[in-house]
Amino acid sequence: MKGTIFPDPYNVVIGDEVDPDRISGNRVIVYPGSKIYGSSTLISDGVRIGYEGPVTLESCQVGSEVNLKCGFFKDSVFLKGSVLGYGSHVREGTILEEEASIAHTVGLKQTILFPYVTLGSLINFCDCFMSGGTSRKNHSEVGSSYIHFNYTPSQDKATASLIGDVPKGVMLKQKPIFLGGQGGLVGPCRLTFGTTIAAGTICRKDELRPERLIIGGQIKYESIPFIPGDNRNIKRIVSNNIIYIANLSALMHWYHNVRSQFISSDFPEALLTGLKEKVYFAISERIKRLKELLDKTYDNNTAIDRLWPEMEKVFISEEDLSGLVSLEHNFLDIINSAIKKSGKEYISVIKNLSDEESDIGTQWLQGIVDIKTDAGLKLLQPDLTD
């Protein structure tokens, strides 16, 4: 912590459990009103904390040049150059990768934003994954006053939405996704790259066709019979949940095998550990929420309890991935060669891969998604999803 700048040290609280060796003394500024807690907290070079207002930071891993302007941040990871605006409320399981940003008064929990993704102001965007875009000028964006609806009348949260995906999204070559302001997305939903949702639209359906514009007006007033818990669309809900978890499994493999090659002063081992912990936590959360939904939908179905240990194993284990070893090794050789040639700047290396090289990595990760998805769906069929 030596060298860290405290303009008013008497108005900063640092918990006794905080490890001073995990707070950089290089260009870090902690402004008055800041509170820092947690033995796992990591603060890297050039971080600014609390310039616009009070900050509470607990058990987060913060990469270099991150700007935490004002708010509450817990059990999350922020990578190089990410920006979090005034009144942020960021809770456990959240990851903002390089140069992702949120403006003022945004709530996140179990949210993963890939590089460059930008969220406007007055947004609630919990239980989402979002990728897409190639640069700060060509990025996926969520307009102001947007809501991801992640809680149902049946009181379940098996509602995580996949906006873009992991296998293509990590390569930073896809068209951005735009969710217009004053709108909402009803989870669990899947949107592909190039999707645009017009301002004021509530999107309730998947859109897997690229380059589509979704426009929705007001819903005609209707009063129809409805009983919470009557999940007539259970097949789609279960399928979207399993595909979401399978993408998280692919992301875990990406962090473990690819991100691990970029350990440096800008990306220390502690940041990688934080990323892997958050993804593992996200996988566990989504499995838990899916089981809660099935328990409600299929009351007293002993098959769920019998199958669930095997379901958890599907998304965590390395089994059944042997057919992807060649693709994995080929792609890791490509990454290692690129690092030797141009250094360990993650964004630069990934963006400079040729389309053919990126395709190898995408095939490997998509293979993981497909294998995990098929295994999960087979476990639940035919008894639970017919």
Explain briefly what this protein structure is.
With 386 residues, the chain is an alpha/beta fold. The protein is built from seven helices and 30 strands. The termini are far apart.
Kindly state the percentage of residues in helix. 25-40%
Largest sheet: 10 strands, parallel
Radius of gyration (Å): 21 Å
User: Low-confidence stretches at least 5 residues in length (pLDDT < 50)?
Assistant: none
SS class = alpha/beta
Give the strand content: 15-25%
The overall average pLDDT, rounded, is 93
For the termini, the CA-CA separation is 58 Å
Number of strands: 30
Which descriptor suits the 3D outline? globular
* Strand arrangement across the biggest beta sheet: 2-5-8-11-14-17-22-25-28-30
Number of H- or I-type helical stretches: 7
